[in-house]
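Cross-check.
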Amino acid sequence: MNTFPATRRLRQNLLLSEPIMEIVHGDAREVLPLLAQESFRCCITSPPYWGLRDYGTRGQIGAEESVTDYVATLRAIFRQVHRLLTPDGTLWLNLGDSYTSGGRAWRDDDQKNAGRAMKYRPATPAGLKPKDLVGVPWRLAFALQEDGWYLRSDIIWHKPNCQPESVKDRPTRSHEYVFLFSKSERYHYNFEAIREPATSRDGPRNKRSVWSINTEPYAGSHFATFPTALVEPCLRAGSERGDQVLDPFFGSGTVGAVCQRFARGFVGVEMKREYVKLAKKRLGWD
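Predicted model, tokenized:
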């Protein structure tokens, strides 16, 4: 995966301080260190979840043998994101949780979601038991906090149309987290842009921390799409028209599609070639 000539050109373009829209086919671990520091006002992203998907890509993130290794991998990536953000920049990070595998080394096909089939399953993390909730989002959130990020909000993404689960000993999961981090104590956050209707006659109110947003299917091979309605408030609060937005796990290109609609520039990094093609088609580039 030779991304270096492309990233050199991209770095030069970013230094011009003019909004650009570009997808880089490559590994975020290799691409981000090559980009110019303080080039982005905002980062909105959803990394591969730990132990939940097999993307069939060599070196894929999320397939680490231990959750500790997974957190360390993402921690290093977000250190680069921290370097790339402007001093008043924000990071909006969506991440789902998982349960320990209970010793199973693989997972069967699921008729309701073919993407759930996996050829590998990570072992139960040290200190946990079979059937334990791993707490992956909070493990990463606390690690980033230790790295100097300001953890400003834990937003609950409530999914009214969540997928059913064949479990009878716990509630069906219908939420994920969106963490709002800032690079500095004072940062750009346009609360007026995302105010929501109030039940009283006092007019719109400050947006609350529970967002009820349906998942959005997207025609193509990417089975873990990022809903546009989830990206929109992050983008509108965390950036202004003409700003540059980063997504180091671009997937099917949801962040790019929302940036196009709201006149933001963006750079998306994606290591799977099939998803790069899918994103380009979605953005009308093919």
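The domain at 4-282 is CATH 3.40.50.150 (Rossmann fold). The beta strands are 21-25, 40-45, 85-95, 150-158, 175-182, 210-212, 244-247, 265-270. Passed to J.P. for a second look.
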